[in-house]
User: Which sequence fits this backbone?
């Protein structure tokens, strides 16, 4: 659950707040390893070669574990829409190692395209991406977050549950699908302040 300590009043160059830049709140920064501190979550366009390659890896992975009709992925053009916040996790050399999107809908934000390369997993990076996406959406008025994932992605399900997401039924245009798990997280006004 988001606490009142999630507020990030300090700003860094470029007018981006620290939660946008680091993808986490200031309270977490002192507890990160030097390696983790070199990883940065930055909101940027998905329409660039390194990020396109990352999304292609995600697509290949999804199509290897689910039938095509059960993969509800957004393409690059959709990820570039004005109601989408797209975050890229970059290593110290600037290479993309993860990504995620928040699609702002009337009444909620939808998490899409969360992916961390296999060699970078197990370091809390998906949590950092999710925290950054949620903070950005909260700053734009969202208090409910929804997502669709699949039952074959056990690691992702654990991350989402630890972040406070709970199972729910289908939402939006999604059909009931045995290859889908729908989840929701609500943030109170007090916790978002």
Assistant:
């Amino acid at each position: 659950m988001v606490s009142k300590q999630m507020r990030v009043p300090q700003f860094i160059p470029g007018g981006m707040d620290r939660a946008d830049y680091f993808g986490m709140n200031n309270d977490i920064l002192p507890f990160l390893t030097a390696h983790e501190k070199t990883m940065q979550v930055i909101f940027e366009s998905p329409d660039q070669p390194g990020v396109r390659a990352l999304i292609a890896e995600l697509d290949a992975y999804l199509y290897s574990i689910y039938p095509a009709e059960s993969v509800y992925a957004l393409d690059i053009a959709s990820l570039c829409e004005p109601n989408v916040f797209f975050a890229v996790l970059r290593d110290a050399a600037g290479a993309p190692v993860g990504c995620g999107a928040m699609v702002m809908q009337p009444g909620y934000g939808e998490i899409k395209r969360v992916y961390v390369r296999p060699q970078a997993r197990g370091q809390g990076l998906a949590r950092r991406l999710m925290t950054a996406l949620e903070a950005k959406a909260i700053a734009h008025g969202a208090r409910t977050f929804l997502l669709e994932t699949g039952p074959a992605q056990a690691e992702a399900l654990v991350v989402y549950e630890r972040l406070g997401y709970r199972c729910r039924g289908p939402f939006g245009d999604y059909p009931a699908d045995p290859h889908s798990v729908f989840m929701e997280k609500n943030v109170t006004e007090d916790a978002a302040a």
